[in-house]
Structure of site-specific DNA-methyltransferase (cytosine-N(4)-specific):
Amino acid sequence: MFDSLIIDSPKRKVSAQSKLKDFFPYYAGFPESFAKSIIGSTSLKTGAVVLDPWNGSGTTTTAALKLGFHTCGIDINPVMVMVARARNLQAAAVDLLEAEAKKIFQKTSSINHHVSSDDPLLQWFDIDSTLVIRQVEQKARTLLIRDCGTLENMELNKYSCLASNLYVALFNACRVLTKPFRSTNPTWLRLPKENEHRLSVTKLELKQQFFFQLSNVVASLRESNIYSDASTESSIIVGDSTTFIRENYADLILTSPPYCTRIDYTAATRIELALIAPLLGQSRDELSRKMIGSIKVPKIVCAPDINWGETCNAFIDKLRNHSSKASAGYYYKSHIDYFSKMARSMRGLAKSLKSGGGAVLVVQDSYYKDIHNDVASIVTEMAQFQGLTLFRREDFAQRNSMSGINTRSRKYNKPTGSVESVICFLKKN
Ligand SMILES: C[S@@+](CC[C@H](N)C(=O)[O-])C[C@H]1O[C@@H](n2cnc3c(N)ncnc32)[C@H](O)[C@@H]1O
């Protein structure tokens, strides 16, 4: 079934980047063309299920749906679940978006007229502006999501693709409005300094920005042209890969686990998480701790496990004994946190694959100071421990990688780029 896989470079080309950028700017994904080549070059049968347990912006789920397969995407970040779900709005429903959006800006007496003092939007916006944004968000919530509860009980899963698109337009509008607090680092939105003014936005300004962003979203959905027949199921849900198991479920897993480069994925969606705070049921800090690759580590961490494999254990050993400050403390803990979460996820991933199924993972290596963190070999050994067989590996050198973003680490003697590896496994019958 996987003999003639076509493996293109997983690096997103500028043209593909700008397409997704119009929909929602996301830095960590692989291109849709890459996912389509992989899925399209398998001999999956009608009714097959394609799973991505780290679905991010939904490249795998969108590509699989377009190719006519059932899809399931999991991500721990509700913002990314909304984005991935929004991308799957059927062509016929795109025409409804603008009419629904207009309802959001109509006046009603039932909306809140005060701002809660702990509203996270207050970090960037003054009180009046926060009220304006929150009223619009509240209207979107009550109009389209109704009584779904909080995300704690996974009720986000009832959100329609339509509602998700309105949230994406609101996300993008708030991204533009908070531009004064952004730098060239795509993952970072800073907080105003003490003496800096909070942003001021009128309802009219928000409305104009919102409808401008909605027209981009609509144009990019029209270009993407999702049209699947009613028998194709797509479920994109909030979930944690470290605990997710759906035994013998997927025919193909196509995914890209979080990088091990100390990049906080919640930081990249800071303003979006602030917007959906009433639905989150947890703080950004709590969500951040659960993420793989979190920069917030628990005070007590487990010991390295021999079952994580030789490469992983040798790396941890070198890191712990590195002479630089905090190597044996913070950095040791944060890497243990990463590898233990990865090992648990690989168990769920292997169990969720059907016998005879295949898993294709895109992983990026990195450096801790001058020590090579060979994530591809580490993940391979973890997968093998769970009974999967490696049948192919392609390496692609990357010039600009996420591991280069932390400029302070450049003083060490190491290559400037990184290698992105596509590793392919089989679950033998
Ligand atoms: C490298 S990105 C995936 C990008 C995706 N392939 C795309 O094209 O957009 C990794 C994703 O893993 C998610 N993630 C981190 N920890 C997770 C966990 N414990 N369970 C599920 N998803 C998690 C992050 O939110 C992020 O969206």
Summary: The longest helix spans residues 327-352. The first strand starts at residue 49 and ends at 52.
